[in-house]
Specification:
- The protein is α/β, with parallel strands linked by helices.
- Helix content is 55%, strand content 10%.
- The strands form two sheets. A five-stranded parallel β-sheet has the order 2-3-4-1-5, sandwiched between helices.
- α11 runs antiparallel to α12 and α13 runs antiparallel to α16.
């Protein structure tokens, strides 16, 4: 296989109009697949050439053999033709690509978007595709990489975001990059001209995430052993299930204490914890440094086990009738005591 491709290198080549005859874009993270394929769809050729030279099909409506037939056509009064296959995971018999990849047309840009999975890496057509074009695996970001992603995306929008607002979005939305960018776009479009800073107040108003009752604030209450604040948040969530729920909070709590367990067994300095957890700044580990002094390694392990048991009970396992709100209350009590 060729050198591993990254989003930045692929997008850099596309912007420089260094096109490849084939792009196989696959993986669990659809955001980057859409980013690359959308750029090709909207920028390779001018609008007046697209009617005759750009074809977009969906896997559910086509076959691998038909894709090959489309790719073998020549452009009409244009430098290239573009063939984009969306939702390609619905196509079978990708081995039919072998014959085309033996000798692809340099005038065709074939883009295959295979989402929520990957093609078999042992297949010959992937090796051939990598030799002549791009084979890109789009992987889900780790949760601790989401804040950095938000930072970078906001910068591309020529805006800024403060730390709490960033944490609110990351905790509330999770790792759905498409939804994160969509919500940020929605907020920025609605802001008055000249205002380009996302604050907790703006996020609360435009996205609907409470700036006082959220995962960020609950974690802060737990780390500071603020029993009153923690109980106030739990009571609010129990009374306002549409605002958030146990199911939204459990992944964030599990991720935090799982990371804390790693921090317990590494170099317990700001930089040591930052490197161990894969964060990009020492600011991002300040909560972990404080939590290391509050929760011992033994207590942290027990909390992780309790979160797992709570998750199982929330799904009805060994739990005949305890409500999600009561389960969250019990979990918070266990963490604090």
């Amino acid at each position: 296989m060729a050198t591993k491709q990254t989003v930045d290198t692929i997008m850099g080549d596309l912007r420089a109009r260094r096109f490849k005859p084939i792009y196989i874009l696959m993986g669990e993270e659809p955001y980057y697949i859409d980013m690359i394929s959308d750029y090709i769809e909207n920028n390779v050729m001018p609008p007046e050439e697209r009617d005759f030279n750009q074809t977009v099909v969906y896997g559910v409506d086509t076959s691998a053999a038909q894709v090959v037939d489309m790719a073998r056509r020549f452009p009409m009064m244009a430098e290239y033709q573009v063939v984009i296959v969306k939702e390609a995971q619905n196509i079978k018999n990708w081995d039919r690509l072998d014959s085309y990849l033996e000798k692809p047309l340099n005038t065709t840009i074939l883009v295959i978007c295979y989402k929520h999975g990957t093609l078999d890496a042992r297949k010959k057509y992937l090796t051939k595709a990598a030799a002549v074009g791009v084979v890109f695996k789009s992987e889900k970001l780790r949760e601790n990489a989401i804040p950095a992603f938000i930072d970078e995306y906001v910068k591309t929008c020529k805006a800024t975001i403060d730390q709490k607002a960033k944490a609110m979005i990351a905790d509330f939305i999770g790792s759905d990059l498409s939804r994160i960018t969509s919500e940020i776009d929605k907020v920025l479009v609605s802001m008055p001209e000249g205002e380009r800073k996302l604050t907790p107040e703006v996020v609360e108003q435009k996205i609907g995430i409470s700036k006082d009752y959220n995962m960020f604030e609950l974690r802060d209450a737990l780390i500071n052993r603020d029993v009153l604040k923690a109980n106030r948040i739990v009571k609010y969530l129990d009374s306002n299930p549409k605002a958030a729920s146990l199911y939204a909070f459990l992944p964030g709590l599990f991720s935090f204490f799982q990371n804390l367990m790693v921090a317990h067994y590494t170099d317990r300095t700001d930089r040591g914890v930052m490197l161990a957890l894969g964060f990009r700044s020492e600011w991002a580990v300040k909560d972990y440094m404080k939590a290391l002094r509050v929760f011992s390694a033994g207590k942290t392990m027990k909390i992780i086990q309790q979160i797992r048991e709570t998750d199982a009970k929330s799904k009805g396992i060994d739990n005949p009738n305890t409500s999600p709100g009561e389960l969250l209350k019990q979990l918070v009590y266990f963490i604090l005591h």
